[in-house]
Specification:
heterodimer, A: alpha/beta, 7-stranded parallel beta sheet, 27 helices, elongated, B: alpha/beta, 2-enoyl-CoA Hydratase, Chain A, domain 1, Rossmann fold, 7-stranded mixed beta sheet, 22 strands
Chain lengths: ~775, ~550
């Protein structure tokens, strides 16, 4: 009797229907088993119900051939006829229909390094809940549990199909996993750790203000918790002899089933590394990236100089359609209740692929058909020396050290165009090193474990098929040739997306396409964004303009002595810096200051204004937006630009009883969080909508301001802001000072003499 | 005075001095190149103060001496122009300051109390206090600044009064203090034939609206008398009228539109003009090699030329421009004339023409020119591409009487780096003119129709013009229009050493060497063209036979 007949009239419950394996199973069941009823356990997600998610799946490429054969409408009808959707989550299942004959359990946490509690909840707890619900529903179906060949863990030599030999108590481990999150969350809140997160956040974001620092500290804490939970899983798994939390929890799930399947016939299917389809639904079908694809692509891009694996280690890859066929065959052959069946679906025993062969097939593929690099011809692929794991590890370590050191150096570099270029390069290097580290860690265990899975039971299952089924539903790993599979099926499928011709990305240009509208603010930071000048400089213009040679020298000397302090203050807190600089105005006559600005500083400011910035302000005005200038500079300094802005928010100095400046500010300087708070307040006042408003700023101290609006733009950002902007996808613009403009702080000697004379003339 | 002459390059000719933006280089020209040398600077009058006194006492044209025109209780306005002359600026005391002192002491002697001084900058940038002080002299500055010594503001609606209409329909608005004065004394320096005069007065004292018509592309083309159409670059009518040199900020004599407006002003307000002329000078006394002929250079001159060429290269860009910004020349005052405007201008123009005229035998296929590190509008800013093109195509090209030095559809080769550098302080509208307008079109007529009004009335440029040191928003447009006659007349314009992208945007070609430039133009002028190199600055007026 054929497979179709054996499963005809049966009701099959499938979990994990929306995963890679579930999708392949559904496609097979819909196209080849019209008389088999399917019960799909699907978790609703967001606004999509389980049924809707299933219906959307039919639009995916895997259903392409079937859709072509039946037509989309008929396919939907088939789905409705043949599939019953049960909405639910493996954490707590609803009432399951009775009369389920077979359960194929493909749901699971498939990431290698999940947090330990997730791994247990899904991989062990899911099985427990499934069995509980089946029993509660009153059916005693044949339970087909999809596990993995790697449950064998860190062993070597031949691994037979059968229960695993280990003495780990799942109860103890599961209880620990349930506790560990709470413990870690508690630990992350300890005073020591809180202080650590706060310090780390302060190092990066002190200038942006307390709110930004707290948010960053909290982010660091959450990140730390996640990291701890992941390493708790990985370390526990390795100490007990597994490669990672995934295989560890899968192994414990098998053990639980062996102990608790009771009256349910149990079959455990253990596929090795599942990769793209050999033939069904079409050759090369793959969903998302699995295990080897990132490496193949990194290699094809020339980014993988070597890999820590021994060339003769066996890489056990199996195409998805073979796994589906084997699973269906196993499902159609329930074992006796008291002797569970084990089927390892793999290639390593009967059609082994050694790492060296994998490498040379992939290399040949890329040599024959290299990946394109946009506008720069083809990419050359490296030749691996197979220098061994220690050498590759040392090389990776060196890379990490260099990247780390460069990052520390760069964080101290003042904002400049060059620094931003470096930051971009560093970011790419970091990504690359991070990628290598991750994959090197993940694969180390797999490439080290030199074991061979024996698949005699699976072979016997295959031999038991009808001759026709051997063709339609075959899963003999000898049926294909690795060169063909890798070079003509797998690699082309994996690299297809990279070969798709792409138009050169149009540079993101904001100019000229601002949407007009009421209630839109455009907030500009003066210092460093609209103008290339800082608080210290603006102080200098004004003091130096009125000093004689000796006075200037004295002023410069005292300022030079104070500068390191200012630099520190700027890093720590912009407000400190402004107070420190403005204190130097003590005793100055405010009228004198105004006169100086009118004659000198105004021109100097206009010289330093960036034309692109002015153009942008004007574009915003033309679009009907309300323009706001935010600056730590003195109000008098901004006067030449005042006509461009609807609102100017600048610092004002306090005038003492003697009519002279006290060197103190009238109110707290508007920096960091205060800017965001001001903009929110201002927007309410003028009835503007911040979600469509714009802000332009240059430094990390403006992060709160940029974060407060819907359209933030980083202008000539410092390294810290550059990184945040890139991470958040904010546009980054370079506004240049008009080339050839004098950077001199004051005019020539002759000019100054006349300016002084002009001033006397007024009085 | 040693007259100018034309040298034919032969084997013995040394490398010749060529100005290229903010540097100089020594260039070997192809054999047979005709090099047009300006006359060497002549000496000035012996006593400037005596010459001023004499001129005021013995006016030309139908005018009484100044002393006779002054009476107690009258309103006297004094305008000071042309702010773009001389170029480079005059070192030491400006002759206009001396004239002012003399005029003011006459006024004081006559009991005139109500005196206002107007710096007639027109659409040029306002002068800073320091610059005004340098222009009028410290004593005058202290007595009058800032209440009774003002810079003309062409955008101050309240300060402008309409005084009449030219027969062509152009309404004329001028500064209120001038319109309401009983007498206007116009004090100016003339360096170029055709500059200043009545047209210069109007340019300096009126508004954008008054000047729109006379500075438009059509008027510029008419005034130039080169009847080529701007877009096609061909001459419809081969005959060239014998017009004045289209040089300086307000070109033209009685025939030009600006001059007609000048006549309207003259009819509304009695004008007594006092005009000084200066000789040809390029730099300080120490840089005599700039005006000497290369084969006559002393060892010191050779060392200077080499040193300046190398030194400028060695100086970083910013320092180099700073050095040039401080550039000032030692001028000699060659004449002072006073009296009726038209007669004074005519005398002054004749005087400068005599100093600058050079006979040139026939037109050449290719005109090669250097470009000076200074110019009438550069101010303290570096030479940007727009003004560099203006200096070559309107300034040097326009230095002719009769017919241009180069034939119609010939080629012009200019030395200039053409880097997109603008002064953010002085030229805010130039920055955007280059970025927005020229990016769309370099055709003067197209630009005029599409962009002029927007720039001229832009509140931001206007506010910068009024309160800062910025040129008026329409300034780059007017300069660009002034290049229209040459663009229409010439077949090709190549900039040696020019930035390619910038040149392309401006509608020119770029070459790295003279040889390359000649190769580029060989398509239109042939492999063996006749070449004329105008050895300028100092400026000259070619009289082509």
């Amino acid at each position: 009797m054929g497979l179709r007949e054996r499963l005809a009239g049966r009701r099959v419950l499938v979990t994990g229907m929306t995963g890679f394996m579930g999708e392949a199973l559904l496609e097979r069941l819909l196209s080849d088993f019209p008389d088999t009823q399917v019960v799909a356990l699907v978790r609703p997600r967001g606004s999509h119900s389980g049924a809707a998610r299933l219906a959307r799946m039919l639009r995916k490429p895997s259903f392409g051939p079937l859709r072509e054969r039946l037509g989309a409408a008929e396919l939907a009808a088939v789905l409705a006829r043949q599939v019953q959707v049960v909405e639910g989550d493996l954490a707590s299942l609803p009432q399951l229909p009775a009369e389920i004959d077979v359960v194929i359990h493909c749901a699971g946490e498939v990431s290698f390094d999940p947090p330990i509690d997730d791994a247990f909840r899904i991989n062990v707890g899911g099985v427990q809940e499934l069995v509980r619900a089946l029993r509660a529903g009153g059916s005693a179906p044949h339970l087909v549990h999809v596990s993995t060949a790697y449950v064998a863990g860190l062993r070597s030599g031949h691994i037979a199909e059968g229960p695993l030999a280990h003495g780990v108590d799942w109860r103890v481990e599961q209880a620990y996993a349930a506790r560990v999150r709470e413990q870690t969350e508690d630990a992350s809140r300890s005073p020591e750790n809180s202080a650590r997160f706060r310090r780390a956040a302060g190092r990066g974001f002190a200038a942006a203000g307390a709110q930004t620092v707290s948010a960053e500290a909290e982010r660091l804490r959450r990140e730390w918790v996640a990291r701890r939970l992941v390493s708790a899983g990985g370390e526990r798994a390795q100490v007990l002899g597994w490669t990672d939390a995934y295989t560890f929890t899968k192994a414990l799930a098998e053990r639980w089933l062996e102990e608790h399947h009771g009256e349910l016939p149990l079959t455990v299917v253990r596929p090795s590394i599942i990769e793209s389809a050999l033939a069904r639904p079409f050759p090369g079908w793959i969903e998302g990236f699995k295990m080897a694809e990132p490496l193949i692509i990194a290699y094809g891009r020339g980014e993988l100089p070597d890999f820590p694996a021994s060339p003769d280690a066996v890489v056990d890859i199996i195409p998805i359609d073979l796994v589906v066929n084997a699973t269906l065959a196993a499902a159609a052959a329930p074992p006796p209740v008291d002797s569970p069946a084990y089927y390892t679906v793999c290639s390593g025993f009967r059609n082994p692929l050694r790492f060296q062969e994998l490498y040379s097939h992939v290399r040949e593929y890329f040599l024959a058909d290299p990946l394109p690099q946009r506008g720069r011809g083809a990419i050359g692929v490296p030749q691996w020396p197979f220098a061994g794991a220690p050498a590759a590890e040392a090389r990776l370590r060196r890379g990490e050290l260099v990247v780390g050191a460069a990052g520390r150096v760069l964080s101290q570099v003042p904002a400049s165009r060059r620094a931003r270029v470096w930051a971009g390069q560093l970011e790419r290097a970091q990504t690359r090193v991070g990628f290598l580290r991750r994959y090197s860690d993940v694969y180390r265990a797999y490439t080290k474990a030199e074991l061979v899975y024996v698949d005699d039971a699976t072979r016997a299952l295959y031999e038991g098929l009808d001759e026709a089924d051997k063709v339609d539903f075959g899963f003999d790993p000898r049926c294909f040739d690795w060169r063909h599979y890798l070079q003509e099926v797998h690699c082309p499928a994996v690299t297809a997306v990279l070969r798709r011709p792409r138009a050169a990305a149009a540079p993101r240009r904001l100019s000229g396409n601002l949407a007009a509208g009421d209630g839109v603010l455009a907030v500009f930071d003066l210092d460093g964004a609209v103008a290339a000048a800082s608080v210290v400089e603006s102080y200098l213009w004004m003091r130096l303009a009125d000093e004689g040679v000796w006075g200037r020298a004295r002023e410069l000397a005292s300022l030079a002595a104070a500068l390191p302090g200012y630099a520190r203050a700027d890093r720590r807190d912009r407000g400190h810096l402004m107070r420190a600089v403005y204190a130097r105005y003590a005793g100055v006559d405010p009228l004198e200051l105004e006169r100086l600005v009118a004659e000198v500083a105004g021109d100097v400011l206009l010289r330093r204004v960036r034309p692109a910035g002015i153009r942008r302000v004007r574009e915003h005005r033309a679009a009907g937006h309300r323009t706001v200038l935010l600056t730590g500079a003195l109000e008098v300094v901004t006067r030449p630009l005042a006509s461009l802005f609807d609102d100017v928010v600048a610092a004002r100095l306090e005038v003492g009883g003697d009519g002279r400046l006290t060197g103190r500010l009238e109110s707290s300087p508007l920096v960091g969080d205060a800017r965001a708070a001001f903009v929110r307040h201002h927007a309410r006042g003028v009835g503007a909508d911040l979600s469509v408003s714009w802000a332009y700023a240059d430094s990390q101290s403006d992060l709160p301001l940029l974060g407060a609006v819907g359209n933030p733009v980083a202008v000539n950002p410092d390294v810290a802001l550059h990184q945040v902007a890139r991470g958040s996808g904010w546009p980054i613009e370079e506004w240049l000072v008009a080339a050839g403009e004098s950077r001199m702080v004051v005019g020539s000697r002759v000019e100054r003499r006349w300016q002084a004379a002009a001033g006397r003339g007024v009085r | 005075m040693r007259p100018g002459f034309v040298l034919e390059v032969d084997e013995r000719t040394p490398p010749l001095l060529v100005h290229s933006g903010d540097g100089v280089l020594l260039e070997r020209f192809p054999l047979g190149t005709r090099v047009v040398y300006p006359p060497q600077p002549r000496g000035g009058v012996e006593s400037v103060d005596a010459a001023i006194g004499a001129a005021l006492d013995a006016p030309v044209g139908e005018s009484a001496p100044l002393a006779a025109l002054l009476r107690p209780g009258m309103r006297l306005a004094i305008s000071v122009q042309d702010l773009t002359a001389p170029s480079p600026r005059m070192r030491g005391r400006d002759v206009r300051g001396r004239i002012l002192e003399r005029v003011l002491s006459l006024a004081a002697a006559a009991g005139v109390d109500e005196v206002t001084l107007v710096v007639a900058g027109g659409l040029n940038r306002r002068l800073s206090a320091a610059e005004v002080a340098r222009l009028v002299g410290e004593r005058v500055f202290r007595s009058f600044w800032p209440q009774r010594l003002v810079c003309h503001d062409a955008e101050d609606i309240a300060g402008l009064v309409e005084v009449g209409t030219a027969e062509s329909g152009e309404a004329l608005q001028v500064a209120r203090v001038v319109a309401q004065a009983d007498l206007l004394v116009a004090v100016e320096v003339v360096q170029t034939p055709g500059a200043g005069g009545a047209a210069g007065l109007v340019g300096g004292l009126s508004s954008y609206a008054s000047l729109r018509g006379v500075r438009g592309v059509a008027a510029v083309m008419r005034d130039a008398g080169l009847s080529g159409s701007v877009s096609s670059g061909s001459l419809v009518d081969g005959s060239l009228v014998d017009g004045p040199a289209a040089d300086g900020p307000a070109a033209g004599d009685g025939g030009s539109a600006a001059a007609r407006l000048g006549a309207v002003l003259g009819a509304a307000v009695p004008v007594f003009a006092v005009t000084a002329t200066v000789n040809l000078a390029v730099g300080p006394a120490g840089s005599a090699f700039l005006t000497r002929r290369e084969w006559e250079w002393s060892l010191a001159d050779q060392a200077m030329a080499f040193g300046v060429g190398r030194g400028m290269d060695l100086l970083a860009g910013r320092v180099r421009r700073r050095a040039l910004r401080e550039l000032a020349a030692d001028y000699a005052i060659t004449s002072v004339t006073a009296g009726e405007v038209s007669a004074v201008s005519a005398a002054a123009w004749a005087q400068v023409l005599e100093q600058q005229a050079v006979e040139v035998p026939g037109q050449a296929d290719v005109l090669v020119v250097g470009s000076a590190p200074f110019g009438p509008y550069h101010g303290s800013g570096p030479a940007d591409p727009v003004l560099a093109a203006h200096g070559a195509l309107a300034g040097v090209f326009g230095g002719y009487r009769g017919v241009p030095v180069v034939r119609e559809n010939g080629a012009m080769i200019v030395y200039h780096p053409m880097a997109a550098r603008f002064s953010q302080l002085h030229q805010p509208s130039y920055v955007d003119f280059y970025e927005e307008v020229l990016a769309e079109s370099s055709e003067p007529a197209t630009i005029e129709a599409k962009f002029e009004r927007q720039y001229a009335t832009d509140p931001w440029y206007t506010s910068l013009y009024q309160t800062s040191l910025a040129l008026h928003g329409v300034h780059p447009f007017h300069r660009w229009y002034e290049t229209a006659p040459a663009r229409g007349y010439l077949g090709e314009v190549v900039f040696v050493g020019g930035n390619r992208a910038v040149c392309a945007r401006l509608g020119f070609r770029a070459a790295s060497t003279l040889a390359d430039a000649l190769e580029i133009v060989s398509g239109s002028v042939g492999r063996d063209p006749s070449i004329a190199y105008v050895h300028s600055p100092p400026g000259l007026v070619a009289q082509v036979r």
